[in-house]
Amino acid sequence: MRIFFILAFAGWGGLLFPLSLEAQGANHITDPSYNDGPYIFYEDGAVLARWTNQEGLREEVINAGQPLEIDAGISASFDPAYLDVNDPFLASAKTAFKGVEHIAAVSDIHGQYDLLLDLLKANRIIDEQGNWAFGEGHLVVLGDIFDRGDEVTDLLWFVHKLEKQAEKANGKVHFLLGNHEVMALQGDLRYIHKKYRYTMARMGMPYNELFGENTYLGRWLRTKPVAISINNTAFVHAGFSEVLLDQGLSFADMNRAFEEKIIGQPEDSILADPILSLLYSEDGPVWYRGYFDEGFAKWQAQAILSKIRKKHIVVGHTSFSEVVSLFHNRIIGIDSSIKLGKKGEILLIDKRKFYRGTLNGDRIRLN
Ligand code: CA
Questions:
Q1: Which of 26, 29, 136, 350 is deepest in the core (most CB within 10 A)?
Q2: pLDDT of amino acid 278
Q3: Residue 17: its pLDDT value, please?
Q4: What is the structure's pLDDT at 13?
Q5: Are 138 and 349 in contact (CB under 8 A)?
Q6: Within 13 Å of residue 312, how many CA atoms lie on the same side as its CB?
Q7: Closest CA to 154 of 96, 193, 187
Q8: pTM of the predicted model, to two decimals?
Q9: Ligand 1 center to 143 CA (angstroms)
Q10: Ligand 1 centre from 13 Cα, in Å?
Q11: Do 34 and 177 sit in the same domain of this protein?
Q12: What's the 240 CA to ligand 1 centre distance in angstroms?
């Protein structure tokens, strides 16, 4: 049975929300063009899907063994066939992947779902229907799905689906945390699209609680790493600074610190610990920009690579108009400004050769 509740907005606590939202008034909140969801909550032994459409807040109880039939207006990328509400959501202890023949990486998508689909289709990572077509290849989504654009929920459900499809094909999707995932989960909501302020109002909770520990997407996001390697290449949203690597942390140490001690934890407790505050800082893996500083030299890149025992580092976070290479592919920057919603590129690694993949599907060799 489908059970719907249409809830009034009257109960939402104005104090929880920024003044700008209250000033918008209820008209904007009931804007009929506005849809979002689903968000799935574990509450008192039940699993509830909530989404919003022109009728307001909708809710359905997810019963075991019964497929979810959510009505129109929710994310087009959400497919209940891929939902596993009994998933234990365990973070993978594995950080190094070997023997992968085809690798693709894309970063800083920032709510631009349509543009990402175009890019992945053009480069045959997905088919025309948006399903995995990359076989045993590995796709790295290098952080910053959240913030700026208005298709964040669509992107999350899309990456979640693709992850499951890839797994079935013996391929893999690696979604790494960027600083904007960390910010959203920490309740730093300065960059969220105004659409999500309406969602907050409708749901009666701050945005980060839509991804809290009692939610499906929140649990899923909490399993995501900040650093991995595939073959001889390391992947991290922003970079490994020398000062961070001097601490001698492994990729597994960094991932565990974010999972257990940073995401969803009060900032005071993070800043009170020197290692955690370093990981959380501008010298940390989701914020560092040093590779693209003017004075950054080849010998420094070489020193960093020898510390992590890799030949290449792929990062996003610092924006360019295309995929860029430093020091003969020792460092590759893949934030190609997808966030602007107009164009972007994907990095392709085939038989240890590096290429820019364009929106036209062209491959341009990187040196
Ligand atoms: Ca970033």
A1: 29
A2: 98
A3: 36
A4: 31
A5: no
A6: 22
A7: 193
A8: 0.91
A9: 7
A10: 31
A11: no
A12: 14
Are both 32 and 131 inside the same structural domain? no
CB 171 within 8 A of CB 137: yes
Domain that holds residue 193: 96-365
In a domain, 198, yes or no: yes
Domain-located, residue 326: yes
Total number of domains constituting the chain: 2
* CA 108 / ligand 1 centre spacing (Å): 6
User: Domain check: are 266 and 301 in the same one?
Assistant: yes
Are the C-beta atoms of residues 158 and 129 closer than 8 Å to each other?
Answer: no
CATH number, residue 321: 3.60.21.10
Same-domain check for residues 221 and 295: yes
Please indicate, yes or no, whether residues 23 and 115 belong to a single structural domain of this protein.
Answer: no
pLDDT per 10-residue tile (average), the chain, 367 residues: 32 33 42 80 94 87 73 78 92 96 98 98 98 98 97 97 98 98 96 93 95 98 98 98 98 98 95 98 98 97 98 98 98 98 97 96 96
Distance 211 CA to ligand 1 centre (A): 19
Q: Are residues 68 and 109 in the same domain?
A: no
Q: Locate tokens 């999350």: which residue?
A: 156
* C-alpha 225 – ligand 1 centre gap (Å): 15
How far away, in angstroms, is 67 Cα from ligand 1 center?
36
Question: What's the 358 CA to ligand 1 centre distance in angstroms?
Answer: 21
Distance between Cα 301 and ligand 1 center (Å): 20
State the pLDDT at residue 287: 98
Q: Count the Cβ atoms, other than its own, within 10 Å of residue 315.
A: 26
Q: How far is the CA of 177 from the centre of ligand 1 (A)?
A: 9
Q: Last residue of some domain: 75, 105, 124?
A: 75
Give the model's pLDDT for residue 284.
98
Compute, in angstroms, the gap from residue 318 CA to the centroid of ligand 1. 7
